[in-house]
């Protein structure tokens, strides 16, 4: 399926049903379809052909998201651009993908102006919501289209998604229609969907929150788009719109749990509250199961194998007698039906249950490769397996446990310390809101385990107390030798804690 086929499938069920809702304004499936055809025709009038790359640079916005389907309908390839990236990284990604057009919001016009001169192949600029130098206005752009077109794609390529960029030129992950169809099929078979779903998108539509829209659209569901963050607004929208499905990374779930309005909000409509994109504290997850409800649903994936390497449906968080299965809460669920998962040693041997190594996967969920980077594609592949870069193991019940990212493991005094294990120990302290554990250079230890902690509002704790708390659980080797308490942690647009920013601040 092409990306636009999910929209058209939903429209075939009820063209008059609400499709995209923002700030109380609804657009029906028929209206979104019509606008996507106008976008497709306008792109064709500007010379965009099937297989060409078209980027979108926007915060959460229903018009911008509709453009995704216009791009697909024209047979072109969608390149989502993260507004939070540095200008140089976005320039590199646009150049790598060979984008011929960018559709952007007025607030990002300065960024476009900064990089456009270095991108001679970028021939079409369109501002979605206002005037911008050198760009077509939205109405003028749409007026270019003579007749709607619906071009099939030249091949199965649907998206080029940027990843990396912190250590050099970013990589472009090639995701095909087959990859996203596999992801959608796994989603629909793994989680509860009763009736017509209502999906609330707070997290950026350029990331996980966006691709989770495709299974919702296939069922004719409604997508409620939040333009900006705000936990109070999020809770109000869940109650007002009777939201059935939503997704948040763990750091935002912690904010939901800390919000004063949570316990007074009617969350009874929720069927599935997805969490993922980073490890979650089992302590906070248990709290969420009690206070938000038995609707928490984990997903584990990465850009190269989107979203659904393993899943844990709401029911899997509980034992047959209805009690919380605390022994599973630290897991990433079970490998999904359409993905094969194994654990591999550094020498390339597949390991047995409970043996720790790199998590490798194979199946139609895995990307086609890195765009114009055969060396990186080859490095991420071994004997037909895709290397995730995550370290973990499978238990006797086939639950997958991720102990760390390979790059985040701290080697201190000759011992391997997994940052995730230390973070989970710190998160058990009742005063801790969030934390991140990194390794910093140390003359004695090679690396010293270092923790940066954000406390809950109204709570206090000092580094000595937190150190003793961790030592009682993990012993001296894994206890951070340096603990910093910060008012907040640096986060990406999708809510992940930016460990590289912490290292840059603390590194000598």
Automatic annotation (TrEMBL):
InterPro entries in UniProt: AMP-bd_C (IPR025110), AMP-bd_C_sf (IPR045851), AMP-binding_CS (IPR020845), AMP-dep_synth/lig_dom (IPR000873), ANL_N_sf (IPR042099), ATP-dep_AMP-bd_enzyme (IPR050237)
Pfam families: AMP-binding (PF00501), AMP-binding_C (PF13193)
Residue ranges of every copy of the AMP-dependent synthetase/ligase domain listed in the record: 15-371
Organism superkingdom: Bacteria
Gene3D superfamilies: 3.30.300.30, N-terminal domain of ligase-like
Residue stretches making up the AMP-binding enzyme C-terminal domain: 421-496
Single annotated GO MF: ligase activity, forming carbon-sulfur bonds
Name of the protein in its database record: AMP-dependent acyl-CoA synthetase
Source taxonomy: Bacteria, Bacillati, Actinomycetota, Actinomycetes, Micromonosporales
